[in-house]
Amino acid sequence: MRRYLLLASAEFRRQSTYRLALAAGISANTVFGFIRFSVFYAALVGAGGTIAGYDRAQASTYVWLGQGLLAGIGLLGTHEVSERVQTGEIAIDLSRPIDLQLSYWARDFGRAALMIPARGLLPVIIGAVTTGLAFSSSLWAIPLGLISLALAVSISFLLRYGVNLISLWTIDVQGYTSLYMLLMSLLSGFYVPVHIFPGWLQVIATASPFPSMFQSPIDVMSGRVVGAAALRVVGVQLVWTIVLAAATRLMLWRGSSRLVVQGG
């Protein structure tokens, strides 16, 4: 366990060195927060003030929490694993006395531990001051929200990791990465809340892990779901985490066996 904590700590320190990038990220998150809220608010006005239970305060909360969690959850794809497969360096990684999946998972938590407060806190504060936020008064919203956030980070990592592992079977994963980004952006609630999707699209979205990586932590932390409903949301996230962890571990096992055959 200690080695994984050290990896997480090292990644935290590595990310903290890119201070100009952090400042640029805060600026971009804030600007796009105002743009997203403006679009959502215009839709609310056109719909008579509410859409699927979202009023002005709840729309603002959804937008600014999303902007605050965006970088921490890590929705955008990464290519480190696939690049190491292409260069053959993955063979060195597999020979090390450390679990490959857990090592990258620990590093991703280290990244998230920096990004959430460093890039997420200020945009949320700006949103609270300018357009206002609405949070639940339930005492369980904060602890359940933190658990939900940790599971969202895990689900996001496992999905990105899984897309990278496709490189064990194909030379170029760019097409798969583009498809993943398209599906994730649409079905996670990144563009608009999943709750305002038409019924058929809600069914498709809820059958996928994507809402659990973005919509779910926002719902739990904002208090849109409370009590038993919040526990169900977190439970679904936990199930997806277990399923994706098992699936990516199987992918690595089958893919690494194939590498041994090719190397032989």
Strand content: under 5%
- Which structural category fits the helices and strands? mainly alpha
Q: Describe the global form.
A: globular
Care to count the β-strands? 0
What is the H/E string? Answer: HHHHHHHHHHHH
| Overall average residue pLDDT | 90
Q: Helix count?
A: 12
Q: Major sheet: size, sense and barrel closure?
A: none
Low-pLDDT stretches are 260-264
Rg, rounded, reads 19 Å
End-to-end CA span: 33 Å
Residue share in helices?
over 70%
If you had to describe this structure to a student in words, what would you say it looks like?
- This protein is an all-alpha fold.
- The chain contains twelve helices and no strands.
- It has helices spanning 2-16, 19-47, 56-73, 80-87, 90-95, 100-130, 141-165, 174-187, 199-206, 210-213, 215-222, 228-263.
- α7 (141-165) packs antiparallel against α11.
- The protein is globular and about 60 Å long.
- The two termini are 33 Å apart.
- 39% of the residues are buried.
- The model is unreliable at 260-264 (pLDDT under 50).
Topology at a glance:
Layout: H1 2-16, H2 19-47, H3 56-73, H4 80-87, H5 90-95, H6 100-130, H7 141-165, H8 174-187, H9 199-206, H10 210-213, H11 215-222, H12 228-263
Helix pairs in contact: 1-6, 2-3, 2-6, 3-6, 3-11, 4-7, 6-7, 7-11, 7-12, 11-12
